[in-house]
Amino acid sequence: MDTRKIAVVASVAAVALALSGCSTGSAEGQGNSPSAVSKMSPAPDSTTKNPSPSKNNTYRPASPEGPAENVPVPKLPALAKEYSEDGAASFSKFYFDLVNYAIETNNAGPIKKVTTKECIVCGVSIIDEATEAKKLGKWHVGGKHHPQILDSYISGENLAVVTVEYTADKAEIYLVPNEPDSKMDKLEPTTVAVGLEFDHGWKVYRIIGAE
């Protein structure tokens, strides 16, 4: 899943959606994008090429030998449930925890529950990418995102905007053990605005970067 495309897609979306207050960093070219690989690479026979999962509940991070196992689902902090600027900021950090969970597991279920259909960037760069990666049987080693909240404010009735600067670790993508299919360099600091709406809890409805 290439969540690093957020910066690129968001810059284009900014013109139409007109949410301001941040600036995007640079993103990788398509040559290193695992989404490009997913469109060209055939799905491997997971019954013969991927290692068997462990039979206990111990967390095992992804490695060149195989995907992560028993990854704990991030828990929503109590503060992130509040309708306040601090609550919106806490939720945005939690959202990036869900991004990392989706990268590590290819399970987009948890992040989909707190994302509206209006968030095109979320759907294309996070949810769809994870779903496609799961179908192909590929996995990430590395690629963790590290967010820092720069600003949070209530922008309207039941709405908030949180400015986030994030980096991402370098990553390798595998389709078969010990044979990296593609690689991504470390992502330098990139800034986006996260639009949130509140209805019995926060949800992301936009991720936008202004040029």
Automatic annotation (TrEMBL):
**Which terms are listed as keywords in the entry?**
Signal
Q: Which PROSITE patterns match?
A: PROKAR_LIPOPROTEIN
Domain DUF6318 positions: 57-181
Q: Composition bias, kind Polar residues: at what positions?
A: 23-60
Name the Pfam families for this protein: DUF6318 (PF19843)
What InterPro entries does the database record attribute to this sequence?
DUF6318
This protein is called DUF6318 domain-containing protein
- Protein species of origin: Glutamicibacter mysorens
Q: What is the lineage of its organism?
A: Bacteria, Bacillati, Actinomycetota, Actinomycetes, Micrococcales
